[in-house]
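Good day; I would like, with your permission, to put a structural problem before you. What I wish to show you is a protein chain and, alongside it, a tokenised description of its three-dimensional fold. Thank you for your consideration; the sequence and its tokens are set out here:
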Amino acid sequence: MPYSAFFGALNVFLKQHPGIEIDVCECVLNGGWEALEQGRVNLIVGSPGSVPLQKGYRAVPISPADLVLVIASSHELAGIANKPEDAEAQLAKLRKVVTHDTSVTGITRSEGLSSDGKKLYVQNINQKVEAIRAGIGIGHLPRQRVQSLLDNGELVALGLAEASVPEGFIAWKISSKGKGLQALSSELVAVFG
């Protein structure tokens, strides 16, 4: 999800509630649900589904990201971007840049490219963007995060089928009754829901 929209909503909330302290942390895939279950966070924003059942969560769906499969224009195989039939054939030879699931105790998962071939694992989307820009490999990235790099030609979209994108959620425990949590979740739902 766009950081600018998230921090804009957070700014609106903090202006209305200046005495509240917030600690923002980044989780990937099932890591957000695990952090909510373990009480390490009170609210998750953008965690992909499916919503864990029987956990007492209120989950509001948000629009899924528009993911685009990209390669650096400086990569030696970037020329396949204009030839989808060649891209399919070369896909197994290309290193995939994959963001780790931050889940520790639950079942970890991955999204996007197949499990075949070479991989470079990174900790977050910023690292993934930079690894792909450096020419290390390919990967799916949120279009809104890399549109300027696509526009200036630094990254090139590969003409292959787009990844299936799981629905994302804003979620919190139903048992959490704090007025601050209610106000912040309402603000975020208004922006993203």
Remarks:
- Residues 68 and 80 are 15 Å apart (CA to CA).
